TrEMBL record:
Alphabetical GO biological process terms: NAD+ biosynthetic process
Organism field: Sesamum calycinum
InterPro entries tied to this protein: C-N_Hydrolase, C-N_Hydrolase_sf, Gln-dep_NAD_synthase, NAD/GMP_synthase, NAD_synthase, Rossmann-like_a/b/a_fold
Domain of life: Eukaryota
GO annotations of cellular component type: cytoplasm
Name of the featured protein: Glutamine-dependent NAD(+) synthetase
Coiled coil start-end: none
Length: 712
């Protein structure tokens, strides 16, 4: 037996906060050593934080990373343990996303990332160059101060692996695992047994299974130990990195970390037998044949042993059942942890939420309530960092700290019902009851006086006073009055968030929470600069269908029973339809014509081509009319693959010809053709029924006939 103990981790890094990041890195190394591990893997770009974005273009960022690495190497942090650190490195005039592998106070090699993530939320090609020289390792000249401090002038740089006396280890960085020809396939044929994947992977609903299947697939048919590390938390932007550090051996998960957590550092350790890897590979004939004629990959020889021989007192890690959260749990825990990171790092004293009693704002309130429960639970489990943050944010004194989530919520969470003469008692009551269940400090405010004052000002300026439609006003007047009410709620929310802490003799300010969902954003079913305009929004990328299921779950599992029967009417098109439109538009990259064709397959058994045409045109009309609203959308937790968020994920124009004349004309032509086909088939069927033989005949598309959108 060759026994190897490896350690990986989830780290809650913060972009550009080098002190925070170094504290977490050092803590992870200490825990790895305490566990007896000889390999420690950290997340991608862990020294700087993954989300530095254009800060990567600053030389300061790269220089600070080198200073931090020097600090780690001059201390005893790498003594007796192979550590992989993620940081940016400049070679010549190019900047690379690198893993720096270090052992015994020396840099063993620098491995630049070869395939960069450059879609969806990722823009790595904006900041980094992909390494393309696969044939050989190059000598990298270390910066002068690093060279002098380490007494090391050059280091191998490029694609390759480290050959120890008893095993071979290589890095595979994040996106490379998911590329068409991943490096681990070639590395396995060259004898590499341990793969270290440093990642910066964000949470998305129902995504974790895809990631784990990739780790399992990498080692199931080739053998190997796949070690995965990820960031966990909000590092300064819209993304929540969802951890789940894990270790996979020959296709079996033997260690798995949490997906959602308030911890800054979480370690995952496993002891594995590398002879099991060699045994599996030796039993696969095709592996043996391909290995015998493999392309050679460069390596760095290190005269050092990592493995231990067989010892009865050293137990092996056994396969585990993979842990998955339900989508409802993901909605509760992901945004809840993201909100906690944002709160403790922003300097705010709490949150303020305009609580209407509707499904969306109630979902946000429930997520904040879940956050408070997570904080109290983590404190009871002994997490001193969470405890210190909660004491500071909640302004506890005399040794007190949160022990009850409702009491903690009352200190850090304001909810406000902003009613008008048109508000119902039912929504007012629902808001009040939910606030009591969560524990928030609840206010009930009438905005009629503010709206009346604005209307009087308008009348003084123009000589006219607009009326609601029910009072005889026009559509223009009615819409204008509704917008005034909506925008007054935004102004009042920010005023209360700024001044209520002062009223209650608290320092700081409150963050205003928004509560529009992804489907309403896609449709534009919101007022620009209303309560959807806030500091942050935890549900802005979550669909209405998922929120409805979450509310039913939260009523039971979070103890907020008033959520059980909460629902809302649709808005001219159903939320189910909006989810289909959103996925076709974004995930399947459909324009109006392609969407129409796909929906003919999906809905062709229940709707005519003309009816489908009307639905597609209606969606694209309002989507394009309202696209400008996405440019000012409140920064939202990213959770859904069809988010219309304009900042970085869904980049499109915001001024459209909303008539779509060319595309809609093409749809009309298709409808005419399909209607003609239907008439011909009907006539043919009638003739056959009457006993007449018909030659030829034209067919129509059928639902689910192999089109990829049939599963949308």
């Amino acid at each position: 037996m060759r026994l190897l103990k490896v350690a990986t981790c989830n780290l809650n890094q913060w972009a550009m906060d080098f002190d925070c990041n170094m504290k977490n890195i050092k803590e992870s190394i200490c825990r790895a050593k305490e566990a007896g591990a000889v390999i420690r893997l950290g997340p991608e770009l862990e020294i700087t934080g993954y989300g530095c974005e254009d800060h990567f273009m600053e030389l300061d960022t790269v220089n600070h990373a080198w200073d931090c690495l020097k600090e780690l190497l001059l201390g005893d942090w790498t003594d007796g343990i192979l550590c992989s650190f993620g940081m940016p490195v400049i070679k010549g005039s190019e900047r690379y996303n690198c893993q720096v592998l270090c052992l015994n106070r020396k840099i063993v090699m620098i491995r630049p990332k070869m395939w960069l993530a450059n879609d969806g939320n990722y823009r790595e090609l904006r900041w980094f160059t992909a390494w393309k020289q696969k044939e050989h390792l190059e000598d990298f000249l270390l910066p002068n101060d690093i060279s002098e401090a380490l007494s090391q002038t050059t280091v191998p740089f490029g694609y390759g692996y480290i050959q120890f006396l008893d095993t071979a280890v290589a890095a595979e960085v994040c996106e490379e695992l998911f590329s068409p020809i991943p490096p681990h396939a070639e590395l396995a044929l060259n004898g590499v047994e341990v793969y270290l994947n440093a990642s910066g992977s964000h949470h998305q609903l129902r995504k974790l299974d895809l990631r784990l299947r990739a780790f399992i697939g990498a080692t199931h048919t080739r053998g190997g130990v796949y070690v995965y590390s990820n960031q966990q938390g909000c590092d300064g932007g819209r993304l929540y990195y969802d951890g789940c550090a894990c270790i996979v051996v020959n296709g079996d998960v033997v260690a798995q970390g949490s997906q959602f957590s308030l911890k800054d550092v979480e370690m995952v350790v496993a002891q594995v037998d590398l002879d099991a890897v060699a045994s599996l590979r030796g039993s696969i004939s095709s592996f043996q044949e391909q290995a015998s004629c493999k392309p050679k990959v460069s390596s760095v020889a290190v005269p050092y042993k990592l493995c231990q021989p067989f010892k009865l007192q050293m137990s092996l890690s056994s396969p585990l059942k993979i842990q998955y959260h339900s989508p409802e749990e993901e909605i509760a825990f992901g945004p809840g942890c993201w909100l906690w990171d944002y709160l403790r790092r922003s300097g705010a004293s709490g949150f303020l939420l305009p609580l209407s009693g509707g499904a969306d704002s109630s979902s946000v309130a429930a997520i904040v309530g879940c956050m408070c429960q997570l904080v109290v639970n983590e404190i009871s489990n002994g997490d001193e960092q969470v405890k210190a943050d909660a004491i500071r944010i909640g302004h506890y004194t005399d040794g007190q700290f949160p022990t009850d989530s409702k009491e903690f919520a009352r200190r850090i969470f304001y909810t406000v019902f902003m009613g008008s003469e048109n508000s119902s008692n039912a929504t007012r009551t629902r808001a009040k009851v939910l606030a009591e269940e969560i524990g928030s400090w609840h206010l009930d405010v009438s905005i009629d006086g503010v709206v009346s004052a604005l209307l009087s000002l308008f009348q003084t300026l123009t000589g006219k006073r607009p009326r609601y439609k029910v009072d005889g006003g026009s559509n223009i007047e009615n819409l204008g009055l509704q917008n005034i009410q909506a925008r007054m709620r935004m102004v009042l929310a920010f005023m209360l968030a700024s001044l209520l802490p002062w009223v209650h003799s608290k320092p700081g300010f409150y963050l205003v929470l928004g509560s529009s969902n992804v489907d309403e954003g896609l449709r534009g079913y919101l007022t620009k600069y209303d309560c959807s305009s806030a500091d942050i929004n935890p549900i802005g990328s979550i669909s209405k269908q998922d929120l409805r299921r979450f509310l039913r779950w939260a009523a039971v599992h979070l103890g907020y029973s008033s959520l059980a029967e909460l629902d809302e009417v649709d808005m001219g098109m159903t939320y189910e339809e909006l989810s289909v439109y959103g996925r076709l538009r974004k995930i399947f990259r459909c324009g109006p014509v392609s969407m129409f064709k796909n929906l003919c397959y999906k809905w062709g058994t229940k709707l005519t081509p003309s009816e489908i045409s009307d639905k597609v045109k209606y969606f694209f009309k309002y989507y394009s009319i309202n696209r400008h609203k996405m440019t000012v959308l409140t920064p939202s937790y990213h959770a859904e693959s069809y988010s219309p968020e304009d900042n970085r994920f869904d980049l499109r124009q915001f001024l459209y010809n909303a008539r779509w004349p060319y595309q809609f004309r093409k749809i009309d032509e298709l409808v005419q053709q399909l209607d003609g086909d239907r008439v011909a088939i009907t006539k043919s069927t009638a003739q056959e029924t009457a006993g007449v033989t018909v030659d030829g005949g034209m067919g129509v598309v059928a639902a689910g006939s192999g089109n990829p959108s049939a599963g949308v």
